[in-house]
Amino acid sequence: MDLVLCHTTADFDALGAAVGLCVLRPGSRIVLTGGCHPTVRDFLALHRDEYPLIERRSVNPQQIRSITIVDASGRDRLGKAAEWLDLPQVREIAIFDHHLEAHSDIPATVTQIEAVGASTTLIVEKLKNQAENSDIPFRLLPSEATVMALGIHVDTGSLTFEGATARDAIALAWLMEQGASLGVIAEYVEPALSPQLQDLLREALKNLRSETLHGYSVAWVLLSTEAYVPGLSSLASRLLDLTETDALLLGNVYKFSENDNNRNIAPESPVSNRLTIIGRSRIEGTNLSELFKPFGGGGHARAASLATRDVDPLLTLNQLADELKTQIPHPPTARELMSSPVRSIRPETSVGEAHRILLRYGHSGLSVVDAGDRLAGIISRRDIDIALHHGFSHAPVKGYMSPQLKTIAPDTLLPEIESLMVTYDIGRLPVLENGQLMGIVTRTDVLRELHQQKARDRGSSAEFSYCAVSESVEQLLRSRISPELWQLLSIAANIAQNRGWQLYIVGGAVRDLLLATDDTKGGQDAHPTTLNSCGTGILPVALTDIDLVVDGKCGSDDSGAGVELASSLQKLYPESRLDVHGQFQTAALLWHKDSAFGSLWVDIATARTEFYPYPAANPEVEASSIRQDLYRRDFTINALAVRLGVPRSGELLDFFCGLLDLESKQIRVLHANSFIEDPTRIYRAVRFAVRLGFEIEPQTEGYIRNALASGIYYRIQGENGRAPALETRLKSELKYILQAPYWKVALQMLGDLQALRCIHPSLELDRELWRQLRLLDRCLQGRKKEGTTRILTRIHGLTIEGESRVRGNKEEGIRKKEEKEKATILKAQSPIPNSPFPIINIPDWQMRLEVLIAYVAPEYRGKVAANLQLPADSIKRLEVLEAGKKQLAENLPKCELPSQLVLLLRNYELPVLIAIALQSPRSARRQIWEYLTKWANVEPPLNGNDLKALGYKPGPGFKRMLDDLLAAKLDGDLGDRAAAISFLAQRYPQA
C-alpha cells in the first residue's frame, strides 16, 4: 500500500498536493492524519468520493510499502500516523514541502522543499512535465484540477501573498487549461476584507433580512455610508458565504455631489442620494442582469450590479427582492433524484456478507431494514472496512450500522437535501413514504444535479464528473427518425407514463442518431464520422435495432415492466411479433418487411443491474434504476440514453461523458474490470473502433492488455470447466468481425492486442497465419471471379451489424438466423459429381474462423471449435484436418496425371482441402488449386443411362466404368462420344 499523508488539520494545499501525487502514482491512498480545516471539511462533505481517501483506522500498517508527506516535514505534524515512519518494510519516504524554515526530523529518502507559494505547485509542475513529455494523451479530471487549484489559491491568497511566485501562477494557468472549476474555487476561497468592509459586514449581518422560497434562501440588506465604498462585491461574496444564502441583494446608499468628481463645480452644488446594489445568486434560472436592466444595471445572470440616483433606496431594494423571488424555479425533489429500488439487508446479516454485497453491486453503503421492511439503519463501506480490519467479519451489521438516521420525503427539495448532507456529513439519505423505504439519494446524485445545472447555465460541456449536454435533444431525435417510428416511441412513452414508469431509448441507437450526418444513408451499419447536432438538413436514420429501457422507480413489483409494456404495444401493432424472455426481464417486438417500419427489432427491457459471479461468466441480472442499467454497458458511447415522455422529454442522460468521447472519436470503457468480467468486450472495442473510425482510448487499451496478460480466462476455464463469455458470445463477436468488410483491419488490431488468445492461449496473429488468411481471401475472391459457384456457394445479402447482445431472447434470434443461413447454404450446394462425400459449403466468415482455429496445435482444434459451439461438421473437419494433411503430403507427389489428382482429392470436403492447401507448400497448393479450378467439374462423357442404353446391367460395376471414363477424359485419351463407347467396348466387353 502506497500512502500520501496530509498534516493534521489539513488545508487545501495539503489536500491538493496529495491528490496530485495520486495522479502521478496511481493506486496511492490519501490519509488525513488528524482532521482538516473547516472549509476543507465542508468541501469533502460533498466531494469526498472524488478522491482516493482512506481512514487512518482502516490502514493495515503491515501492508504499507511507501509513505509520501505533503506540506509538512516534521513528525509532530502527522499525529499518530508518524509511527508508520518507523516500520521496517517501508522502503521509501518522500517529502514535498514549501516551508524552507521548517526543521525536518523525518528520515526521508526523497526530499523536495522549495520556495514556492504552495506545495501543490511542486506537484503540478511534475504533472505538467509528464503531460508535455508523454506520447500518450494526458488530461486531469476536473475534480483533480479543481482541488489542486484551490490549494494554490488558498496558500497564495490568489497570488496576492508575499510568498507567491511566478511558478504558482504558471501552475494555476495550467490547471485552468485542465478544467479547474472557477465556480467551485470561488465558493471555497476566502479573500481578505479591508477594515471598513469588515465594519460593514458586521452591520450587514445585524440588519440582514431573508426569506426562504422553494427551499432557497433569498436575503437583502441596505447599508448607509457617507461616501462610496470600494470593494462591495467582495463584501457581497463574503456575506453570501457566511449566511449560506442562495441569493443576495446588497444595497449601499450614500451622499453624492457633482463636485466630488469635478472641482470646477460650485461648492453649493446640490447633494443627492446614490444607490448601488450588488447582486449575487446561486439559483439556477435566476437572471440578475435582466433584473437590474430597467435601472440601467447589468452584468451576468448570477452576478450583476446597478447604480442609480434619486430613488427611494429601501423601496427599490424591496421591489427588486420581490422580483427576484418570482424568478426562483421549483427545484428538483428527492423523487426525481433518488435511486430506486434500494439494496437492503437485515440487521442479522454478517459484516462479511454485507461486504460481499457491496462488492457485488458497487455501492458505498447499504440500508438495513427490519422484518417489517422498516428502515433500521445504514451501514457505510467505511464502517464495514473498519469492522473487517478488526476481524469481525462474522458479527451482525446491527452492531456497526448507524441507527440515528436523517431521512427525507419524496417531495424534499434539492437545497434541503444538500444542506443536510453538508451539515451532518451524510453521504446518503433514505427516502421514506408512509414508513416505507422508496429510494435513496446519495452525494453522487446531488453532485450530478448541481453540476448539470451549473454546466447548463454556463453552456459548458463538462463540470467535475458529469458531462452535461443540451437540455433536450427531442427535436434532434424527431428530425432523424421516421414519423412512424417517432409515433411508436411516443405511444410507448405515454403507456409507460400512465403506469408511473419512465421510458428511455438507450445504447447504440442513441449513439448512431448523434453521429448521423447529412451523407448518412441510414442504418446502424453506416459509418458516421462527425458529430452534428444542429438538426437541420439531416436525412432520417433507418434504425433496425432499438433498445428501450423502462425505469419503474417502484421496486421489485415492476421487474416485469418491460414485458408488460411490450405486450401493450403489441396489441396496438398486431402485425408485429412478440418474443418474451422472462429470465432477463426483456421482450422484443419484431416487424419483417413492414410497409411502415421495414425490418425492425425493438427490444424493451426493465432497467436492471448485473453481476458477474466470476470472470467471463454469464451475468446475473436484477431490476434496478436507469443509472445502474447504463453503468452495466460496455463503453461510454453506448451508455447514452434519451428520456421519452414528460417530465423533461428529450433529455439526454450521459453519466459517463459518452458525448465527449463521441466528439473525441474514442472508445472508452466504463470501469477497469470490464474486460475481466466480459472478454467479448475486447472484440466489441475493436469492432466499434474500426467500424466508426475511432481510436481505443489509451487507458482502455491498457485495461485490455492487463486483462489478457493476467491469464484469468484460462484459469477460470480450468477451475470451472467453462467460461460462458468465451463460447457462444465470443463466436457471435467473431462472426460480426469476420463477415464485415473491414475484417482485415479489425483482425490486425486484435492481433496487436494479442486478443486472439481468447480463442486459445497459443493463438497469435503472426506472419504465417496472416499469410494463410490472405491466401484464403484470394481463394474466395478468385472463385467468385471464375464463376466456380458450383463448388463454393455463398449467400449474398445485407446483414445488419448491431450490438453484440446474445443474452435473452436475442440469443434465440441469432440461433434461428444461423439455422436459416445454414439451410439456405445446404439447399444451394452443388457437390462434385461422383464424389462419395458431398461438399458442405459454409459462409466466408466461418471459413476464416476455421483457418484461425486450424492454426492451433492439432490436439486442441476440435476442443476449441466445440467450445465456440461451431456446427458438428465444422468440429469434425478440424479434427480430421491433420490426418488429411499428412495423407495428401504423402500422396500428392505421386499424382502425375490429372485423373490421379481428381480421384485423390474428390474424396475431401472443400473446406478441408482449402485448409490443407493453406498449410501446405506451394507445389501442393498449386495441385489443389488446379483441381478446384480446372478438373473438379469435368464429368464422364457417358452417364448411367447411357450405360443402360448400351446394354450394361446396373450394378457396382457402373462406378468403375464411369471412373475409368472420367480418368480417360481427364488424361486426354477420349475425344467424342463414339470414342467413349469404343473405350467401354474394349475395357468392358459384353458377352
Key terms:
alpha/beta; 38 helices; elongated; seven-stranded mixed sheet; six-stranded mixed sheet; 991 residues
Write a structural description.
With 991 residues, the chain is of the alpha/beta class. Helices cover 43% and strands 15% of the residues. The protein has 38 helices and 27 strands. The strands form seven sheets. A seven-stranded mixed β-sheet has the order 19-20-21-18-17-24-25. Strand 20 and strand 21 (598-606) form a beta hairpin. Residues 458-471, 518-538, 785-809 and 821-840 have low confidence and may be disordered.
Largest sheet: 7 strands, mixed
- In order across it, which strands form the biggest sheet? 19-20-21-18-17-24-25
What does the overall shape look like?
A: elongated
Radius of gyration: 37 Å
Secondary structure: number of strands: 27
- The share of residues in extended strands comes to 15-25%
Proportion in helices: 40-55%
The poorly predicted ranges are 458-471, 518-538, 785-809, 821-840
The tally of helices reads 38
How far apart, in Å, are the first and last alpha carbons? 98 Å
User: Which structural class do the helices and strands define?
Assistant: alpha/beta
Mean pLDDT: 83
